[in-house]
Write a structure and sequence with these properties.
The protein is α/β, with parallel strands linked by helices and 433 residues long. It is built from 25 helices and nine strands. The strands form two sheets. A five-stranded mixed sheet has the order 1-3-2-4-5. A four-stranded parallel sheet has the order 7-6-8-9, sandwiched between helices. The chain binds iron/sulfur cluster (2 copies).
């Protein structure tokens, strides 16, 4: 694609990066076929190629983003399916990240939307406040139909995401050192996380138990809460970079061999810290080192060669590969191989490349598209008639779990159970019921 940035504009390193990315696009349009928003809406401007044109025009003009451009950028899930499909290696992720930052800097959103975004960006990365907000939302939930009548579906979708019961406390997973059982093979840091540590603390607890049992010492560093992914995808760069620096400091001081992440959305961002902090001389190298150490938990378990075992129960699992897992991190075979190695029967989900509509805060900010994608995903999952669903991202667990009674768990909870841990609570409840 030809671009026409001026020499002055190209002095800005963000524009220079965007220019390099844009010039790789040959307009072939292969990416349109696998883009969830194009598949649903059929509008070229809601396809990767259409968005690339909009972003190019927006950045070349160097002016404030227009409402039309913002509409189509906001509808992008950042699922990165287009990057998997693109034969020319267009780095759409870096382009859309910069475009969102430009929108955030130059465009004034309507008041309600601005407030909603600011509240989400403030609450979600702070586990204590987020938990309080969830408890309050469960009190307001009975009034959801009244709020719906006010006509803003984003508020109702926010309420719908709150769990029906107060989430259990985080007992295993708080900052500290969790020693290896037997001979120590490695010392790793585990991202404590923000939303996940509140909604389902059992995920990190299962990861810690499983790693400890296999000779891995686990450090949960003080301050390793939110990785910055949520605000990064909202274009709030200053907040995202501050959080990235905090994580880099915490893990650089921890003396670890790997950084383990149990939410693939966070993993994609942490693996990109080297790029995000490339313009900061004080952090560039440390950030690159952290990105190089970052592993999804399934990637790490495959690396340490988790032994094969018999399943605690012969279950048929539909494996839902989160976009951030398959497209963002290109982790495809490991989760499935680990589950099969634990004796489970694993089915792929038809249209597995399409997003479930979760995408960070997307299911709150774009509820119409998110619900359509969720229902399509659930129908595809049902078509393989599984006993349960496994996935590697808390966003997908929450989103898909809203629309099906089939139990949905994190892959590591099933692996921990198969390797001597206890049966996950959701399975105990469903076998009682
Ligand atoms: S990231 Fe996903 S939604 Fe956005 S343009 Fe690419 S394929 Fe489409
Ligand atoms: S597949 Fe790649 S090169 Fe082709 S239009 Fe899409 S982004 Fe551009």
């Amino acid at each position: 694609m030809q671009t026409s940035f001026t020499a002055e504009q190209l002095k800005d390193p963000h524009i220079a990066t965007a220019n390099q990315i844009l010039r790789k696009c040959v307009h072939c349009g292969f990416c349109t076929a696998t883009c969830p928003t194009y598949v649903l809406l059929g509008d070229e401007l809601d396809s990767p190629r259409g968005r690339i044109y909009l972003i190019k025009n927006m950045l070349e003009r160097g002016e404030a983003a227009t409402p039309e451009t913002v509409k189509h950028i906001d509808r992008c899930l950042s699922c990165l399916s287009c990057m998997t499909t693109c034969p020319s290696g267009v780095h759409y992720m870096h382009l859309i990240d910069d475009a969102r930052a430009h929108v955030e800097k130059t465009y004034k959103r309507p008041l309600v939307e601005r407030l909603l975004r600011d509240v989400l960006a403030f609450l979600m990365p702070r586990p204590g406040l987020f938990k309080t907000a969830l408890i309050l939302s469960s009190l307001v939930r009975p009034l959801a139909h009244l709020i719906d009548k006010l006509g803003d579906k984003r508020l109702t979708s926010l309420l719908a995401l709150a769990p029906k019961e107060t989430p259990p406390p985080e007992i295993i997973g708080q900052p500290g050192i969790y020693p290896a059982e037997g001979e120590k093979r490695m010392r790793v840091a585990l991202l404590r996380g923000c939303v996940q540590s509140v909604l389902d603390p059992g995920i990190n607890a299962a990861a810690i138990r499983l790693m400890n049992r296999h000779g891995i010492e686990v450090v949960v560093a003080d301050g390793s809460s939110c990785c910055g992914s949520l605000t990064h995808h909202m274009g709030k760069e200053a907040d995202a970079l501050a959080r990235a620096r905090q994580m880099v400091d915490a893990w650089s001081a921890a003396g670890v061999d790997r950084v383990i992440i149990t939410a693939s959305g966070c993993g994609t961002t942490i693996k990109d810290y080297g790029h995000m902090l490339r313009l900061d001389p004080a952090y560039r190298e440390k950030a690159q080192a952290v990105s190089a150490m970052a592993r999804d938990i399934t990637e790490f378990l495959a690396e340490i060669d988790l032994p094969k075992v018999s399943p605690p129960k012969p279950l048929r699992i539909a494996y839902h590969s989160a976009c951030s897992m398959q497209h963002g991190q290109k982790i495809k075979s490991e989760p499935r191989r680990l589950l099969e190695g634990a004796g489970f029967t694993v089915s792929d989900v038809p249209e597995g490349h399409l997003c479930c509509g979760s995408a960070g805060t997307y299911n709150i900010l774009q509820p119409d598209i998110a619900v359509k994608l969720r229902d399509r995903k659930v129908a595809n999952i049902r078509s393989v008639a599984p006993d349960l669903i496994a996935t590697g991202n808390i966003g997908c667990i929450t989103q898909i779990g809203q629309a099906t009674e089939i139990p949905i768990l994190h892959t590591v909870e099933l692996l921990d159970w198969a390797h001597g841990g206890h049966e996950p609570e959701i399975l105990r409840q469903s076998s009682k019921g």
